[in-house]
C-alpha cells in the first residue's frame, strides 16, 4: 500500500504562502531526481535506454532542465512542446515527437530539430516526405486493435484498455508497408512505439507490452527487411492515487522487460535494440501537489468546504471522477471524523476535488494539500469561468523554494482579445 505523506510541512507551506498566494502547484525536486535515478537504474542493462519525459504531463522548463540533468530526453506532441524543449536545450535524438493528426508546422519543426519522428498512421509517410523530408530514423506507432488484457486473476483476464477503440497507431500490415516505403525514400533505421493502457498499477504492463512489441519487431524486421533500432514502450505506468493501491516497483518492471528482451530479441539477433520510455505520470506524478486554502464552508444537504482552487487548476476529478488524496496540513494525526465535499468555485457541479471524503474538521484558512498533481495536473488546466491558471513552485533539493511560473493575471486572460473599443472602460473598472 502507498503511504500518502506530503513532501511539504505546514510550516514550509505557510512560509511559501507569504510569497506565493494559494492556489499553486508545488513540485519536489529531490523526489523527482531520485525517481529518475531509480528508472535509469532499472533499465541500465539496456545500453541505449532513455526515458523521454512526456512534456504534456508537466510542461515547465525548470522541471525539464532537472530531467535533462538526470539524463532524460523529452517526448513532445505539439509545436509549443517542441519550442519549450528547444528553449531548454533539447535537440536531435533527445526528442521523440509522438503526435497525431499532426499540423504541417509541427512536423516541420520536429524535422528541423532532428527529433525522432513517430508516425501515427500509414498516410503520414507521404505527408512527412511532402512537408518536411524523410529522416534517417523513423518510428511508427502500433495499434493491435481489440482489447488489451493483462495477466490472469481469479475472475479471468484483467482488461486494461481498449486499443480497438483508440484513434492512435496503425495495424501490423500498415507498419510493414510504411517501413518498406520509408526505406525506399531513404530511411535507414526504424523504431516501433505503442501505448496500450493508461495508469496501470501492475509490474507486468511494461513486460507484457515489451513481449508484444518485441515479437512484432522480429516479424516486421523480416517482412519489411529493415533494421529496427529502437522500441519505445511509451507511457502508461501508473501511480497509486489512492492510499489502498500498491505502488509499481520500477526495478521489477525493468527486470521483466529485460527477461522479454533476452527471450525474444537476443535470439533473433536484435540485441542492439535501444529501449525507450515516455513516462509522464510515473516520473513526476507523485512529486507534485496542489496547495489550496479553505475559504468557505457551507451546510445544506451535505457539508461543503470551498477552496480557492477549482477544476481549472486540476481537472482530473471533474472529467474522470479521479481520486486525489487530500491532506489537511498540520492535521495529519487528527481523527478523520468529518464527511465533506471539497469543492471549487466553478459554475459546474463536477467541480469537486473530493466527494463524501472523511477528513479532519476543516477550519477556514486551513491549507489543503491535494496529492499527486505532478503529472497531467497544471497542464490540463483551462480558463472556464474566467478562472486564471495558478502559479507553479519548486521545492528545491536544498529546502528553499522557487517560483517557476507566476500565476496568470486578468491581463493574461484578456491578452488575446482586442479591447481597444472598450479598453479604457475595462481598465478603469
Ligand atoms: C504519446 C504519449 N506518450 C506518453 C504519454 C505519457 O503517459 P503517462 O503520463 O500515462 O505515462 C502520453 C500520455 O497521454 C502519450 O500520449
Describe the structure.
This protein is an alpha/beta fold and 429 residues long. It has 13 helices and 19 strands. The strands form three sheets. Strands 1, 12, 13, 14, 15, 16, 17, 18 and 19 form a nine-stranded mixed β-sheet that branches. Strands 2-3-4-5-6-9-10-11 form an eight-stranded parallel barrel, surrounded by six helices. It has a two-stranded antiparallel ribbon with strand order 7-8. The N and C termini lie far apart (53 Å). The relative contact order is 0.16. The model has no long low-confidence stretch (mean pLDDT 95). The structure holds pyridoxal-5'-phosphate. The site of pyridoxal-5'-phosphate has 17 residues, from α10.
Radius of gyration: 23 Å
Total number of helices: 13
Helix content: 25-40%
* Bound molecule types: pyridoxal-5'-phosphate
Anisotropy-based shape: globular
What is the number of beta strands?
19
Q: Could you give the distance between the termini?
A: 53 Å
Per DSSP, what share of the residues sits in E-state strands of 2 or more residues? Answer: 15-25%
Q: Give a quick account of the main beta sheet: strands, pairing sense, barrel closure.
A: 9 strands, mixed
Helix/strand/pairing category: alpha/beta
Low-confidence stretches: none
- Average pLDDT metric: 95
Summarize the structure.
This protein has 429 residues and is α/β, with parallel strands linked by helices.
Features:
single chain, 429 residues, alpha/beta, nine-stranded mixed sheet, eight-stranded parallel beta barrel, binds pyridoxal-5'-phosphate
Amino acid at each position: 500500500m502507498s503511504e500518502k505523506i506530503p513532501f511539504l510541512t505546514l510550516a514550509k507551506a505557510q512560509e511559501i504562502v507569504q510569497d506565493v498566494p494559494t492556489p499553486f502547484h508545488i513540485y519536489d525536486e529531490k523526489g523527482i531526481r531520485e525517481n529518475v535515478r531509480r528508472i535509469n537504474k532499472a533499465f541500465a542493462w539496456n545500453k541505449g535506454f532513455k526515458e523521454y519525459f512526456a512534456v504534456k504531463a508537466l510542461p515547465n522548463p525548470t522541471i525539464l532542465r532537472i530531467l535533462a540533468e538526470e539524463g532524460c530526453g523529452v517526448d513532445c506532441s505539439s509545436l509549443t512542446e517542441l519550442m519549450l524543449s528547444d528553449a531548454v536545450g533539447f535537440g536531435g535524438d533527445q526528442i521523440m515527437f509522438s503526435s497525431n493528426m499532426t499540423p504541417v508546422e509541427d512536423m516541420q519543426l520536429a524535422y528541423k530539430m532532428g527529433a525522432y519522428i513517430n508516425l501515427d498512421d500509414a498516410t503520414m509517410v507521404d505527408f512527412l516526405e511532402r512537408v518536411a523530408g524523410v529522416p534517417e530514423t523513423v518510428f511508427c506507432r502500433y495499434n493491435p486493435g481489440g482489447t488489451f488484457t493483462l495477466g490472469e486473476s481469479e475472475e479471468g483476464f484483467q482488461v486494461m484498455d481498449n486499443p480497438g477503440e483508440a484513434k492512435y497507431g496503425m495495424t501490423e500490415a500498415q507498419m510493414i508497408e510504411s517501413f518498406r516505403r520509408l526505406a525506399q525514400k531513404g530511411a535507414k533505421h526504424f523504431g516501433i512505439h505503442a501505448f496500450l493502457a493508461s495508469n496501470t498499477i501492475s509490474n507486468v504492463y511494461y513486460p507484457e507490452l515489451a513481449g508484444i512489441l518485441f515479437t512484432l519487431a522480429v516479424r516486421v524486421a523480416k517482412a519489411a527487411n529493415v533494421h529496427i533500432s529502437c522500441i519505445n514502450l511509451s507511457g502508461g505506468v501508473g501511480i497509486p492515487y489512492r492510499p489502498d493501491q500498491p505502488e509499481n516497483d520500477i526495478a521489477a518492471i525493468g527486470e521483466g522487460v529485460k527477461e522479454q528482451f533476452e527471450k525474444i530479441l537476443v535470439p533473433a539477433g536484435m540485441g542492439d535494440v535501444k529501449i525507450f520510455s515516455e513516462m509522464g505520470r510515473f516520473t513526476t506524478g507523485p512529486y507534485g501537489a496542489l496547495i489550496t486554502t479553505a475559504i468557505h464552508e457551507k451546510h445544506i444537504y451535505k457539508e461543503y468546504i470551498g477552496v480557492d482552487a477549482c477544476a481549472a487548476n486540476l481537472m482530473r476529478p471533474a472529467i474522470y471522477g479521479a481520486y486525489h488524496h487530500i491532506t489537511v496540513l498540520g492535521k495529519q494525526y487528527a481523527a478523520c471524523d468529518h464527511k465533506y465535499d471539497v469543492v471549487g468555485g466553478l459554475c459546474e457541479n463536477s467541480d469537486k476535488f473530493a466527494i463524501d471524503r472523511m477528513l479532519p474538521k476543516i477550519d477556514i484558512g486551513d491549507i489543503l494539500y491535494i496529492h499527486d498533481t505532478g503529472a497531467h495536473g497544471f497542464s490540463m488546466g483551462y480558463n472556464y469561468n474566467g478562472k486564471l491558471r495558478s502559479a507553479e513552485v519548486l521545492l528545491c533539493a536544498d529546502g528553499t523554494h522557487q517560483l517557476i511560473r507566476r500565476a496568470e493575471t486578468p491581463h493574461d486572460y484578456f491578452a488575446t482579445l482586442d479591447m481597444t473599443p472598450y479598453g479604457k472602460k475595462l481598465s478603469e473598472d
